[in-house]
Write a structure and sequence with these properties.
A 5-stranded parallel sheet has the order 2-1-3-4-5, with helices on both faces. The chain contains 4 helices and 5 strands; from the N terminus they run E-H-E-H-E-H-E-H-E.
Length: 109
């Protein structure tokens, strides 16, 4: 699977995904840190990446538009990087199951 990690999440999440055999980049890696939501959306769509974000705007876009990237919407409050990675590791099997099932908006809380 290929992932694009949004700016509100740490680049370490992309590295974590890569260490588990996935392709992943952070918006910083793609020089999209200050890009608007539509630019990030199009980049994820063009690269066939699953967009992982904490930004509700992407969930709203996905709820309106059937086309575009799969969105994994992280609903976790502010937390330290290590805590986020441990939490994501616990949640990731359910995320993969939802992606494989064809869900296009996956809310993770």
């Amino acid at each position: 699977m290929r992932f694009l990690i949004d700016a509100q999440l740490p680049p370490a999440l992309a590295r974590w995904l890569v260490s588990r055999g996935h392709e992943a980049e952070h918006v910083f890696d793609r020089e999209l840190t200050s890009a608007d939501d539509r630019t990030i959306w199009r980049d994820a769509e063009n690269t066939e990446s699953i967009l992982v974000t904490k930004d509700e705007d992407f969930a709203l876009i996905k709820a309106i538009e059937s086309k575009g990237p799969t969105v994994v919407w992280i609903r976790l409050g502010n937390t330290r990087r290590q805590e986020l990675l441990r939490w994501f590791e616990r949640m990731f099997p359910a995320v993969v199951t939802a992606i494989e099932r064809g869900d296009s908006l996956i809310e993770v809380s």
